[in-house]
Write a structure and sequence with these properties.
Helices cover 30% and strands 28% of the residues. The protein is α/β, with parallel strands linked by helices. Strands 3, 4, 5, 6, 7, 14 and 15 form a seven-stranded mixed beta sheet that branches. A six-stranded parallel beta sheet has the order 10-9-8-11-12-13, sandwiched between helices. Helix 10 (302-313) links the parallel strand 14 (297-301) and strand 15. The termini are close together. It holds the Pfam family ADH_N. InterPro entries: Acrylyl-CoA_reductase_AcuI (IPR014188), ADH-like_C (IPR013149), ADH-like_N (IPR013154), ER (IPR020843), GroES-like_sf (IPR011032), NAD(P)-bd_dom_sf (IPR036291), Zn-ADH-like_protein (IPR051397).
Amino acid sequence: MFNGILITKDDAGYRAQVQPIDEAVLSEGDVTVSVEWSTLNYKDGLAITGKAPVVRRFPMVPGIDLAGTVIASSNPAWQAGDRVLLNGWGVGETHCGGLAELARVKGEWLVALPGTFTARQAMAIGTAGYTAMLCVLALEKHGIQPDDGEILVTGANGGVGSVAIALLAKLGYQVVASTGRVSEAEHLKALGAAEVIDRQVLAAPGKPIGKERWAGVIDTVGSHTLANACATTRYRGAVAACGLAGGMDFPATVAPFILRGVTLYGIDSVMALLAVRQEAWARLAQDIDIVRLDRITREIGLPEAVEVAAQLLDGKVRGRVVVDVQGGRPPL
């Protein structure tokens, strides 16, 4: 038995609670990991609260991220004692995830924990930071340089947005942060934003094409925000779209794409190939500012995670949340 959050659904309803879990509940896999740290992401909030049908089978351990130590492996790529991390691959949705002391996963889903990071720091980055890095890489590979102009980051107070600002600022880009919490402007500027704008500037229905402003965009919101961002991106600029906090719709026209040559990149972090993941984590090890990362990170234990998950969906959580899964106990 081990401790973790278990989500169940039966005639009595949908429940998520911290409890002892039998190892038989774990999903199939060829590597068993003693999980030390996990995170709370937007998708975890949806899974824990049941506000969206994220969980596809029950019972389920949520948590799309984990970091810890291999304790058993029949996969030749890993052996006991290896330090590893995992992002995505459906864990916490169809496969038991990281918000428990043990996880059993497929070895091909794992990435070696970069030696520059502790497990806690890797989870402070988590899927949010890894996704932010994928977005930055997309803009770089498009050819956008710091001297090309402003980079817009939407949903700036969220996990992806916060890390994206810190990454871009360290790389020398001029970042404009869009947020619904303009009271947090000083916090965003401390992360590296040169300017903070109210999300309402982009959230309402707009024109098919507008005044050119952005050399590039990292969008976590979708809907009208994404459409307006595309409509105001400069000639041959690029937009990296990775989120849908504002909706799944995309009420846009083809005008920015055929009149200005704007490129829209879809960023998938869940099923990305191993080589892509390794590139992103190598760059994070090189480019993340640990001091700025600590500034946006809040630490909680497993017993707090259920309550904080609901706060996250209500927009009451800033930056990143890391979960101390072992809670001070020696790793399993």
